[in-house]
Inverse folding.
């Protein structure tokens, strides 16, 4: 259940569906659907892992330093590694903690992983990905 007001203090976590690209054996979509790191070409995620948070796939946020980030939400980003501590301050998704996500190959910052009550999703910086 998604609250009507995304800034409501009683935010609940949203369960994610299995990506449509996976069949019952766990096979994934073809390489044509790959979303790759703009810096090195490493496979970060795929189109089929797109998801919605608060009713939308894409979101634009400004961090406390004034930097604007345009994100896409994804249920999985297996090409990322997560660095630094998990934070709850300044979260763009109330109730969700976050941690920096970087490319698993070149370590370019590609977004964040958000976690809440055993659920998780990635908010990836769309300009850091190429098809």
């Amino acid at each position: 259940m998604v609250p009507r007001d995304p800034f409501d203090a009683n935010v609940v976590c949203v369960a994610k569906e299995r990506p449509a690209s996976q069949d019952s054996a766990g096979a994934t979509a073809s390489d044509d659907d790959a979303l790759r790191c703009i810096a090195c070409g490493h496979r970060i995620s795929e189109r089929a892992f797109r998801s919605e948070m608060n009713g939308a796939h894409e979101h634009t946020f400004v961090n406390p330093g004034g930097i604007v980030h345009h994100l896409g939400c994804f249920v999985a980003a297996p090409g990322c590694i997560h660095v630094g501590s998990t934070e709850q301050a300044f979260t763009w998704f109330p109730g969700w903690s976050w941690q920096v996500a970087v490319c698993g190959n070149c370590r370019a910052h590609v977004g964040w992983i958000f976690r809440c009550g055993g659920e998780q999703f990635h908010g990836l910086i769309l300009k850091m990905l190429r098809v």
User: Anything to note?
Assistant: The mean pLDDT is 83. Residues 50-130 form a domain with the Metal Binding Protein, Guanine Nucleotide Exchange Factor; Chain A fold (CATH 2.170.150.20).
